[in-house]
Amino acid sequence: MDVRSGRQAPQSPATAAGTQGSAIPGEASGSGPETAFTPPATASLWRHLPLAVLVSVYVFWFGLLSLRMYSGYGYTPFDLAIFDQGLWLLSHFHAPFVTIMGRNLFGDHTSFILLLVAPFYRLVPEPQGILILQVCALGATAIPLYALAQRLTHSTTIATLLAASYLLNPALQNGNMEQFHPEALQVLIITLAICAALEWKPVLLGTMVVLALLVKEDAALLVVPLGLWVLWRRNRVFGLSIVAGAVLWAGIANEVIIPAILGVNYYANRIPFGGWHGLLDTVVRAPGQVWSYLCAGGRPFYCWQMGFSFGWGFMVSPELAAIGLLVLAENVVSSDPYMHQILYHYSMPLVPVLAIGTITAIAAQKSRIRRSVLTGLVAACALWSCVLWGVAPFSRDSYYPTDWNLSSSTVRGATDLETRLPPNAVVSAWYPLVSHIDHRTQVYVWPVPFAASNWGLGTDNGARLPFADRVQYLMLPVALGAGNYGALFASISKRYELMASVDGIGLYKRTG
Q1: Residues facing 427 on adjacent strands
Q2: Phi and psi, residue 98, nearest 5°
Q3: I want to staple 447 with a disulfide (CB 3.0 to 4.6 A). Which of 259, 301, 380, 451 is the partner?
Q4: pLDDT tens-place string over residues 382-428
Q5: Which long-range contacts (CB under 8 A, 24 or more apart) does 461-468 make?
Q6: What is the pTM for the complete model shown?
Q7: What is the 3-state secondary structure (H, E, C) of 311-340?
Q8: Helix, coil or strand: residue 103
Q9: DSSP 8-state symbol, 429
């Protein structure tokens, strides 16, 4: 196909792949019919055993950690219980107004991809289900990365090391352990989208682009650069369609859907200097102030971590890695400190982009020795970064730390009290307990609704919400200090009777 005009030329598939202005560094024209998704038929399955072991170990370890964190009450309601209650509401055909945060699920983020997860959630209606789904999606992403690397480098060893480098990435591992977020699905989706663009599989590419845009309102920051690459290297019309569709959807999501649901564009306040206008004005009038801002808050170290975890190998041929530039810029520029730390989910979608950029950069090397040396450097840096900042058994922090894991006796007590809650009773509960009792239409994080805190748009913090009298049960520590709003509980305690208490956790029922 002529990538500029879209005309079909009478070529074999292999020849066509080699004449479309190939942007796969190091790929020879007509290299064979193998695709990035199907290893050569003559290859022994035993060659792929190391990959199977790597993926299995990743899924086992992080699945184990995730389930252990949940069973130990180590996951807080922000954000696991938000998605858990939201999916429970969707799967039971309720309006997805998440009472834990006081916002509609799709007003908080336009994560319409969750509509596709909801039927699965009806089959596995527990938080553990989405935690394992997240682990499997992140682990499975190593498979197309491995297949792409094997196809481009013609080396199973190099492909295995690069897949391992992806799985060792500390931003991926930390994001995996930060409860559940739809961005985990974006990791697999954007990987398949870029692979489809490289192999020129338009149907798969179009499908993955649509799914990518449904993950979150800022997904266009990944899709637009991908569309520009397709326009440049594959097909002008298709690339323009991707860019136009992504820009249009981003505008609708950010300027129509979220404001229509919430009344405001809640996330515009993450842009420094008072929003886009203030940021651009400051760039023109006081660029030094902007530079000082970008050098503060750990932002340079964040960029170093993201690059070092792949040994900066993608810089040898940065064409594909550049697809992630807008997401990196968003994370760095944001005034939200969580966005420029590898501990949080915002960095996860960058990881596969840098992985593919690294793969194509290594494939661009003409010499097998250079490919091997660069692969060794990447693998060594990946391993060292995992030791320093990851969550593997050999990392410095081998078990994900939390301030909320409860003692085994408290866990048993809380679990026992949860069984005494009537289905769909209106409950306000202590912070670490909420993600275990959120399968109901009304559940609140204490002190909500008696005093608004991290609820709604944050404009009524401290105020008693009008539906406070609807709360039928409280699950709270029996001894509430000032940090847990002990004085507030004292003011309402006459209306609630202590039904039972186990290891310091009390279940209270409203009596008046």
Answers
A1: 443, 473
A2: -85, 105
A3: 451
A4: 999 999 999 999 999 765 555 456 778 888 888 999 999 999 899 99
A5: 467/442
A6: 0.89
A7: CCHHHHCCCCHHHHHHHHHHHHHCCCHHHH
A8: strand
A9: E
